[in-house]
Amino acid sequence: QSLPRQKLLTWLSVLECVEVFAEMGTARVWGEMGRWTIIVLIQLAKAILRLLLLLRYKAGIQTSPPIVPLNREQQQPLHPQDVEGNSSGKDQTYVGRRSSRVVRSLQSTPSLQSRHWGSPQQREESQSRRAEEMNQPPTPLGLQETIAESIYITRPLLHLLSLGVWGQRSWKPWLLSAVLDISSLSLLSDLKDLNRRERAELRRRTILLLYYLLRSPFYDRYSEGRILLLLRLLADYVPGVGFVTRPLMDYLPAWQKIYFYNWG
């Protein structure tokens, strides 16, 4: 990737990592007005960065997190003995005569720190497959798909604007945000030949529609009592589940207030 695009992705990742901490810290120091100010500033910065990536650098469907986390186990280099013996895979493994199981030979066993529980061929295949997935270019977006992605990017800003106009207890911001999310997914559903990361991102966005059950005012009027009743029943009648459900019941009001109003 080009250096400017990589910098934009880095800044976008930093914003996504610190946004909740910044919101809670600002609320503690400057109160509710400061909290909403930092929310608007962060969402505005994220929208600008994402629109630059979409319109100028043709980043396509943008994933969350913007930079895929590094899997250090899969990125570990092969043992030097493995590298030297790539051309002669038979020297590294032994195939059982009866079971046909592939076992690494003792001569090619790596050190404990870089040891893995698969054959050298399996590891090489997984590393090459992951490298191909990471290096796949984004799927080109047409006008319809670009509009759909732009809707998804600007949806938090429109939701915040509607909250300022109609208030947090109104159904209009909730309905507006839901319509924008569903419209974006519907317009992107016609896109074919997506790579693996983009298909996973669309599945993630579809699953996150369930968050609307936890957003006010739907949560305040319909979901809260039913969810708490279900968690209480699980804690009382299912052995061992109470260790999870009781803390969840205590933290759910705070999570609902912080996480479930404008970002998915």
Write a compact overview of the structure shown.
With 264 residues, this protein is mostly helical. It has helices spanning 3-55, 72-75, 80-84, 120-135, 143-166, 171-188, 196-207, 218-237, 242-259; strands spanning 93-95, 102-104.
Structure overview:
This protein is mainly α and 264 residues long. The protein is 64% helix and 2% strand. It contains nine helices and two strands; from the N terminus they run αααββαααααα. The chain has a two-stranded antiparallel ribbon. Among the domains are: 59 residues; 76 residues; 49 residues.
Question: Keywords, please?
Answer:
2% strand, two-stranded antiparallel ribbon, globular, 2 strands, Pex16, mainly alpha, 264 residues, peroxisome biogenesis, 9 helices
Largest sheet: 2 strands, antiparallel
Multimeric state of these chains? single chain
Determine the structural class based on helices, strands and strand pairing. mainly alpha
In total, the number of strands is 2
Helix content: 55-70%
List SSEs in N-to-C order.
HHHEEHHHHHH
Using only C-alpha atoms, the radius of gyration works out to 24 Å
Q: Unreliable runs, pLDDT <50, ≥5 residues?
A: 78-90
